[in-house]
Amino acid sequence: MKLIRISVLVAVIMSAAVVTVLVNSTEAGAVTVNWTGNGTDENGACSDNTAVSGGTQEWLFILTNPINGPDGPWDLTAHFQVPGDGIITRTAHVTQEQGNGAVHLTVVTPFGALLQDASVTNGSGNSNLTVSHCTPGPPEEDTTTTTTTTTTTTTTQPPTEVGGITTSTVTAQPSFTG
Fold first, then answer.
1. Are the C-beta atoms of residues 57 and 111 closer than 8 Å to each other?
2. Less Cβ crowding at N or C end of the chain, within 10 Å?
3. pLDDT tens digits, residue range 5-60?
4. Does residue 63 contact residue 33 with C-beta atoms inside 8 Å?
5. What distance in Å separates the CA atoms of residue 153 and residue 171, rounded to the nearest whole number?
6. Mind listing the pLDDT tens digit for each residue in 47-89?
7. How many angstroms separate the most distant Cα atoms in the chain?
8. What are the extents of the domains in the chain?
9. How far apart (Å, rounded) are the C-alpha atoms in residues 56 and 76?
10. Which residue has the higher pLDDT, 110 or 10?
């Protein structure tokens, strides 16, 4: 009877070890997937773009064949050239698959931004990172400009002598900030 119990215990331990090895080997296969130019023109402009000039545009990236099943996480980092503003970085974090085993990640940039590079975590050896399309993004945040006007009044007084020192009038100019 003891021998049967020991055999069953060894079988349970070995089964758990096999499951652990399979889970760890799947996670160990995770790779960072780099964007290779799909979905943009040669300059990095979104090929399928319905965004309107002067606003923002929302970029939809799709990662195919992700690792970790339906529960990520997946993290996207993308760099864009914005004419007149230089390079900006946008990031996205997603924890659930969408689109039949694919991951959808979105970022918002000023209209006309050019994608320079992008990568996403937890892909597999069969993954591909593609720009699907761009749509009008949310309105840009309004900025409030405050102008402060300072006025200085100068009173002229005749020179005064105090303890052998002669004082005179100080003149000040108004200044504007804002």
1. yes
2. N
3. 444 334 434 443 332 223 333 455 789 999 999 999 999 999 999 998 889 999 99
4. yes
5. 9
6. 999 998 889 999 999 999 998 667 789 999 999 999 888 999 9
7. 119
8. 30-136
9. 19
10. 110
C-alpha span between 104 and 168 (Å, rounded): 74
Which residue's structure tokens are 């996403």? 120
- DSSP 8-class letter at 15: H
Whether residue 164 is predicted with pLDDT greater than 60 in this model: the reply is yes
- State the Cα–Cα distance between residues 78 and 135, nearest whole angstrom: 17
Cα–chain center distance at 127: 21
Q: Say if CB 135 and CB 52 are below 8 A apart.
A: no
User: What is the Cα 178 distance to its own chain's centre?
Assistant: 31
Instruction: Identify any residues that bridge with 33 across adjacent strands, giving them in sequence order.
Output: 120
Tokens of 23: 């889970």
Q: For residues 116 and 66, give the distance between their C-alpha atoms in angstroms, rounded to a whole number.
A: 23
Query: Can you count the helices (H) and strands (E) in the chain?
Result: 1, 10
Are 127 and 63 in contact by the 8 Å Cβ rule? The answer is yes
Q: How far apart are the first and last CA of the chain?
A: 89
- The Cα–Cα gap between 51 and 161 comes to 73
Specify the CATH number of the domain 30-136. 2.60.40
For residues 122 and 120, give the distance between their C-alpha atoms in angstroms, rounded to a whole number: 7
Amino acid at 82: V
